[in-house]
Amino acid sequence: QVQLVESGGGLVQAGGSLRLSCAASGSRFSINDMGWYRQAPGKQRELAATITTGDSINYAESVKGRFTISRDNAKNTVYLQMNSLKHEDTAVYYCYARIFRHWDRRVNDYWGQGTQVTVYS
Fold first, then answer.
1. Angle at the Cα of 7 (from 108 to 93), degrees rounded to 5?
2. What is the DSSP letter of 28?
3. Which helix (H) or strand (E) holds 83?
4. Would the pLDDT of 104 be above 90?
């Protein structure tokens, strides 16, 4: 019933920018919180940025000042604008959404399939 589809990843030079998008598709649901997590090879997944329905935003200290998270509620989409990219930003970026399901009145967490971001020097 619900699927998160990410786009916008790719290869970028250090200092460059990328914008990730994640759209929730399906029916009969409402989105609460959304966010982006990332996982580098051989490392644990970590939070990059989150945004609530009230547009309260939280960034990891490592990305603060460089990344900007936003959402378009009409499109069920969350974005991550990534500027001044560094090599250490290289990771698979996963979209996250906490979703209220209308059909069973339950709140569940959903994850996208991940999109690769590679930053080269």
1. 65
2. S
3. none
4. yes
